[in-house]
Write a structure and sequence with these properties.
By secondary structure, the protein is an alpha+beta fold. The chain is 31% helix and 22% strand. The strands form 6 sheets. It has a 6-stranded mixed β-sheet with strand order 7-8-6-5-17-16. Strand 3, helix 2 and strand 4 form a beta-alpha-beta unit. Helix 6 crosses helix 15. The N terminus is likely disordered. It comes from Pagothenia borchgrevinki (Bald rockcod).
């Protein structure tokens, strides 16, 4: 589980003044790993802190802010502040040299920040921190007194030319300089024109990329990976190696922690091609999905803008047992994205796999160098490499027929029954991607330790679960094969060698192009004012529903004589440019003269925005202000209507409703919402014991899903959730449609959307304090408002019935406590890891 801001507390403060210094103190061993975290020591007078900064954009942003603050201090002509207010935060006893883990794992190129000399002129500190490389001996006497090991570390850092994390701006990535926040409209216009003219100053050079994917079924390395990773005669320029099911233990699932990461990483590093030296650029993991990126040492200096992201597509779209990890980077002048995914299992779940793919594409986003720019999605790269256990199966054939085709090596005929091929042919997934011809036998499922097909009771049909696809120009596949020699898992690893044409910069052509663009922009800026034409100015969203996306498109045409920069800006006294249920994508950007940009207005109501819309306190209405840099403002009207839902309505309100919520007048819903916090409010008739919508879902699961394998662990289909939601909100049909997994996920989403959780916020602290005492826990529940108490006891009774069937559904107390405690007992503010454990301990008393 990722560390969030909720898990961070204030422990110490180091003021930035003329006595401030910061220096990198990573050891030579750490520096030898390209892409490793960096350790820096910050100091102020006698105070010192050592920080471990993750390789990435968050660290770069942090160091940039430190540099900016230090520069402001140097420029200041006023008397230096004394920082007396800090004393109240200082602890009486504090160890020195404590390593603190920065909270975010996002990764990219990390700039190096060296200590600054007190007497340096402010003008010497301009620009990015990367230019301070080599000034390590310019600090105060105190920082000079570091150990010889630290000094060697700095020395070795400066001697290396192939460090990815140095991210010095070479000719190959000059365009990225222009995206930095200190550059304004003019330089962004130059960047825009440079990108349009890229063909003039770049040329193609071929590089080899080795891609490998292996579902290891929770095993530890039992054999060398040499036959898989060293199957090419010449050493590849890059290795992108993906694993799935690295660890199947509950500890890995719930806490994202596993010793097998190190074991498999070591096995990979020992099996790389022996005729070249490789640097580890980045490793990223989500539970059991891991991606490792190596590069030849001589190419490392040309890799920049490295970012890593993860997205879980498990239950409620959060759990990381299924999902994807991804690394994006710039190599010379080409942007490349590598995705390793593990999609939904089971032969009949191809629609769920399609949904996982679409979720990954939409939700996996990378931070850009300029924090003001919108994040990059997967598809906004020159080259996309997609590997993983995609889990698509072979259908419509009996297992005997499949094995006969395999024994005859008639893979072409067999491939016609492959789900992924059919879904690609129907353009349901992987549009624009290419997969090479498959001339190897299916990679799943084997008896572990052998080449025998599955002999278990289930006798699964062989399938090509493990796949490699690619998208982009100038890509030639040299091989695509499986590796039968490896027998550790019930899958066989797969590899592909791609030859990719990478864009490199010709410095002379770049200089001439750059200078010509500057001259043209100088001329246009003196002559013209930006202007655009809008396709329309009024947009309407009809019948918006909970968690159902709607979009309307605005087209902007640049009818002026110069490129223009647009941005949606905040209205007076408002903190954002639009309401929380609305987004504009993109919300800012550039349009070349004569060019057009489409902006999608996307409406999406979630648990945060639903309560006020359900009650009528908020309407689907907004005014957006579109601002042109150096130009005029345009006003855009947004309107629509929202269909009330049980999702996002309070337990109290739902217990008052004996009819479907969409049959109720808006005024009635508003009055009920106003009374929902008042247990003493007069009711004209007896309320329901529990919401009827909750009863319908639990009753369905009780009758149909007590023995359902992986219930509450396997996600449902979003299309089925929409039908279930409509059934609950309209009462049509009488019984719930959809699979058991979809109904189970709908129940979890219902609990997650409650404005006031089942255990109200006011009882949260008491629950934490009493978590180890069963009788006290029961006493607290007895004090809940009647409708909340009924819901709690009803759910607990249902979950106890599920546990009676654990042999079939594979549930246990820990799994249910982890899933449901986070929904029933929510913190009104922040919840740290210790509190999460206490809420689970509290709820376990009711599952016994």
């Amino acid at each position: 589980m990722a560390i969030t801001a909720d898990d961070v507390s204030l422990e110490d403060i180091i003021p930035i003044s003329l006595d401030f210094a910061v220096v990198e103190v990573s050891s030579p061993e750490e520096l030898a790993v390209v892409g490793a975290d960096t350790r820096v020591r910050v100091s102020h007078q006698e105070e010192e802190l050592e920080l471990r900064l993750p390789f990435g954009s968050h660290s770069r942003l942090f160091l940039s802010e430190v540099n900016r603050a230090w520069s402001d201090v140097c420029k200041s002509t006023t008397q230096a502040p004394r920082f007396e207010w800090i004393s109240k935060y200082h602890k009486n006893t504090r160890g020195q040299g404590v390593v603190k883990q920065a909270p975010s794992p996002l990764d990219s190129t990390l700039t190096q920040l060296n200590e600054h000399k007190k007497t340096e002129k402010p003008s010497d500190q301009k620009g990015s921190l990367e230019r301070d490389k080599g000034s390590s001996n310019s600090g105060t006497q105190k920082t000079r007194a570091y150990s010889s090991q630290e000094s060697q570390g700095l020395s070795s850092r400066e001697d290396r030319d192939d460090l990815v994390r140095s991210s010095s701006h070479t000719t190959s990535n000059k365009a990225q300089i222009l995206a930095m926040p200190q550059f304004g409209l003019r330089d962004n216009l130059i960047k825009c024109e440079l990108m349009k003219s890229e063909d003039i100053y770049t040329y193609l050079q071929n590089f080899s990329f080795f891609l490998g994917t292996y579902n290891v079924n929770g095993q530890t390395p039992k054999e060398s990976l040499f036959p898989w990773l060293n199957c090419t005669s010449d050493p590849p320029d890059m290795y992108c190696v993906g694993f799935q099911e690295l660890d199947l233990s509950k500890e890995a699932f719930f806490f994202n922690d596993t010793p097998k990461e190190l074991e498999w990483t070591k096995a990979v590093s020992e099996a790389l091609h022996p005729d070249a030296k490789y640097a580890l650029v980045k490793l990223v993991r989500l539970v059991g999905i891991m991606l490792i990126f190596y590069v030849k040492n001589e190419h490392a200096a040309f890799i920049s803008d490295v970012e890593a992201e993860t997205v879980g597509t498990g239950i409620m779209g959060r759990m990381g047992n299924k999902g994807a990890v991804s690394i994006r980077f710039r190599f010379h002048n080409s942007d490349i994205c590598v995705v390793n995914s593990h999609l939904a299992a089971h032969i009949e779940e191809y629609e769920r796999r399609n949904q996982d793919y679409k979720d990954i594409c939409s939700r996996l986003q990378f931070r850009q160098l300029d924090p003001n720019q919108p994040p990059l999605t997967i598809m906004k790269h020159d080259v996309i490499l997609w590997i993983g256990d995609l889990n698509y199966r072979i259908t419509e054939l009996e297992v005997s027929n499949v094995k006969e085709l395999i024994s005859n090596k008639d893979f072409e005929t067999l491939h016609n029954y492959d789900q992924l091929k059919r879904q690609i042919d129907e353009e349901a997934v992987f549009v624009g991607f290419v997969e090479g011809d498959i001339d190897f036998q299916p990679t799943y499922k084997y008896d572990t330790g052998s080449d025998l097909w599955d002999t278990s009771e289930k006798c699964r049909v062989p399938a090509w679960c493990d796949r490699i696809l690619y998208r982009g120009k100038n890509i030639v596949q040299k091989h695509y094969q499986s590796h039968m020699a490896l027998k550790t898992s019930d899958h066989k690893p797969v590899s592909s060698l791609l030859q990719i044409g990478i864009k490199r910069v010709n410095p002379d052509d770049y200089k001439r192009t750059f200078e010509e663009i500057v001259r043209n922009i100088d001329k246009m800026e003196n002559e013209c004012i930006p202007s655009v034409t809008l396709s329309k100015r009024e947009f309407h969203f009809t019948d918006l529903k909970y968690m159902q996306h709607q979009a309307e498109t605005l087209s902007l045409f640049n009818d002026g004589q110069v490129p223009c920069q647009f941005e949606f800006i905040q209205k007076p006294n408002e903190s954002t440019y639009c309401k929380a249920w609305l987004t504009a994508n993109p919300s800012k950007g550039f349009i070349a003269n004569g060019g057009t940009v489409d902006i999608d207005f996307e409406a999406f109501v979630n648990r945060s925005t639903a309560p006020e819309l359900n009650s009528g306190q908020e309407q689907i209405e907004d005014i957006l202000v579109l601002h042109l840099e150096r130009g005029k403002d345009y006003f855009i009207s947004i309107s629509g209507n929202y269909l009330p839902s049980c999702y996002g309505s309070s337990i109290h309100s739902l217990c008052q409703l004996k009819e479907p919520i969409q049959d109720m007048p808006q005024e009635t819903l508003r009055e009920m919402a106003e009374k929902s916090g008042d247990e003493n409010a007069e009711n004209t008739e007896k309320p329901l014991d529990i919401p009827k919508e909750l009863w319908m879902m639990v009753d369905h699961l009780f009758r149909s899903a007590l023995k359902q394998e992986d219930i509450f662990q396997q996600p449902g289909l979003r299309s089925e959730f929409a039908v279930i939601r409509d059934c609950l909100d309209t009462g049509i049909p009488d019984s719930l449609p959809g699979s058991n997994h979809s109904v189970a996920e709908a129940l979890l989403l219902f609990l997650d959307a409650l404005p006031q959780p089942v255990v109200p916020f006011s009882f949260y602290q008491q629950c934490l304090e009493s978590c180890s005492n069963a009788s006290q826990c029961e006493k607290i529940i007895s004090m809940l408002p009647q409708c909340h108490k009924n819901v709690f006891n009803y759910l607990a009774a249902f979950l106890r019935e599920l546990l009676k069937n654990s042999a079939s559904n594979r549930l246990d107390v820990n799994i249910l406590a982890t899933i449901f405690a986070s929904l029933l007992l929510k913190s009104p503010t922040k919840q740290d890891f210790a509190e999460k454990r206490k809420t689970q301990e509290f709820f376990q008393h009711f599952l016994a």
